[in-house]
């Protein structure tokens, strides 16, 4: 008979065994004892401190109220018969400090996992906020880069045009006066020559001799 002991803790364990055809319409006897003297007494049923009768329809049971960090000698027989070697199994319960250590380790792992999840959520939120801020600022930058023509701008442009017009006309008049200066000088020279010629003719008439 192959007996399996699992889910062992400091105060409990679970035992399972294969069904036996010779135990039909009867029960299984599960015997266990922390006293190793039962081994020396030749697997006697009366040497076991604890015994539980399990219906034949079941092939497993739960052992409770065990002592922590204790080695148990367990046997499963049919109809409370004395066990044989292949019907017995030895197992040891865990220590209470070991369970506490395992529980503390599990709680520490859970705490680390929760902290990592929170940090990832915070980082994801910061990245999402940065992306949204960048996307929303692009239309504002495009609007700022486009020139906006307002009434004040038009007034400034018209005002600058009025200021520029007299300057252009004054420069043009200066150039025109500069260009017109040579004809005035030539007219003055011709009039001066004519006056001199008229004076010469007048003197000639007075003197009685007119030049040819």
TrEMBL record:
Keywords: Membrane, Transmembrane, Transmembrane helix. Residues 1-96 form the Fibronectin type-III domain. This is Fibronectin type III domain-containing protein 9. The lineage of its organism: Eukaryota, Metazoa, Chordata, Craniata, Vertebrata. The chain crosses the membrane at residues 108-130. SUPFAM superfamilies: Fibronectin type III. PANTHER family: FIBRONECTIN TYPE III DOMAIN-CONTAINING PROTEIN 9, FIBRONECTIN TYPE-III DOMAIN-CONTAINING PROTEIN. The keyword Transmembrane helix applies. Residues 157-177 are annotated as: Disordered.
């Amino acid at each position: 008979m192959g007996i399996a002991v699992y889910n062992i803790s400091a105060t409990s364990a679970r035992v399972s065994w294969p069904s036996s055809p010779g135990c039909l319409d009867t029960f299984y006897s599960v015997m266990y004892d922390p006293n190793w003297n039962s081994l020396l007494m030749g697997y006697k049923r009366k040497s076991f401190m604890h015994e539980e009768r399990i219906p034949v329809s079941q092939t497993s049971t739960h052992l409770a109220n065990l002592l922590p960090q204790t080695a148990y000698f367990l046997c499963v027989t049919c109809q409370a018969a004395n066990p044989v070697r292949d019907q017995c199994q030895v197992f040891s319960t865990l220590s209470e400090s070991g369970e506490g250590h395992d529980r503390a380790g599990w709680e520490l792992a859970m705490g680390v996992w929760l902290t990592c999840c929170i940090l990832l959520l915070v980082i994801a939120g910061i990245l999402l906020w940065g992306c949204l801020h960048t996307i929303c600022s692009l239309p504002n930058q495009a609007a700022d880069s486009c020139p906006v023509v307002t009434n004040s701008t038009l007034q400034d442009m018209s005002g600058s045009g009025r200021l520029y017009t007299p300057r252009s006309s004054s420069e043009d008049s200066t150039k025109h006066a500069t260009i017109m200066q040579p004809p005035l000088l030539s007219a003055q020279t011709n009039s001066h020559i004519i006056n001199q010629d008229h004076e010469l003719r007048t003197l000639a008439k007075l003197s009685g001799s007119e030049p040819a």
